[in-house]
Design goal:
four-stranded antiparallel beta sheet, five-stranded parallel beta sheet, Rossmann fold, 41% helix, 12 strands, alpha/beta, Arc Repressor Mutant, subunit A, 231 residues
């Protein structure tokens, strides 16, 4: 589960950010001024920073400069009410990775967060083919079969199954699946993951109501089990 630090001096915006991020299953820290935010960056090492530029005590510009000078590579998403291109450019030049101008769409903000977290993750090797039970899935040609009969799967289902299979035995959070499979596209929510998992189970599980391959780990996410006898 990713830890996000939101640094914003407007109480209503900060509360809204925190509520929406927690709803999407992120861990959240908040700060209402630059000094407190900078201290939390150093102490808690968040996975992503949402940073207002105009802050009391220590500006967002100064926070960007300081953390990048110190070698902190944590993705920074700027929030700014200013519309001038020069302000955005300055923030990016100081080390921010992306920006959203106020007022902003929470769906767009969440999509940008997912994309930044995905880019910050080390690349993981994929797999070209998967075989289990009577199912064969080729991730290169996007072809699948069950008991020798063609199995219709969407591109997103192929991508989701490939990612889960590449992490066989590991619990993968809904947030990780969103980052890997969707990114910006369509601004999905964690419910999108659940719906796709249900669709995949209907196609590849012998008993979708009692899945043995795509297991739910309640409160965390899902995992692919290579051998149906293993937990």
């Amino acid at each position: 589960m990713s830890l996000i630090l939101a640094i914003e001096d407007d109480p209503a915006i900060l509360r809204g950010l925190a509520d929406n991020l927690r709803f999407e299953s992120y861990e959240v820290l908040t700060a209402a001024d630059g000094e407190t935010g900078y201290k939390l960056i150093r102490e808690k090492r968040p996975d992503l920073i949402i940073l207002d530029l105009m802050l009391p005590k220590l500006s967002g510009y100064e926070i960007c400069r300081k953390v990048r000078t110190e070698g902190v590579a944590t993705p920074i998403l700027m929030l700014t009410a200013r519309g001038e291109e020069a302000d955005r450019v300055l923030g990016l030049d100081l080390g921010a990775d992306d920006y959203v101008a106020k007022p902003f769409s929470i769906r767009e903000l969440l999509a940008r967060i997912r994309a930044l977290l995905r880019r910050a993750q080390p690349a993981k090797p994929g797999i070209d083919e998967l075989r289990f039970d009577d199912v064969v899935v080729n991730f290169v040609s996007y072809e699948a079969a069950r008991a020798g009969q063609p199995l219709e799967m969407t591109r997103k289902e192929f991508q989701m199954l490939r990612f889960l299979a590449s992490r066989a035995g590991e619990v993968v959070s809904r947030d990780e699946l969103l980052n890997e499979v969707w990114g910006y596209e369509n601004y999905p929510t964690t419910r999108t993951v659940d719906n796709h998992i249900a669709g995949l189970r209907a196609k590849i599980e012998r008993d979708p109501a009692n899945p043995q391959r795509l297991r739910t780990v309640h409160g965390v996410g899902y995992k692919f089990v290579a051998s149906a006898g293993n937990s």
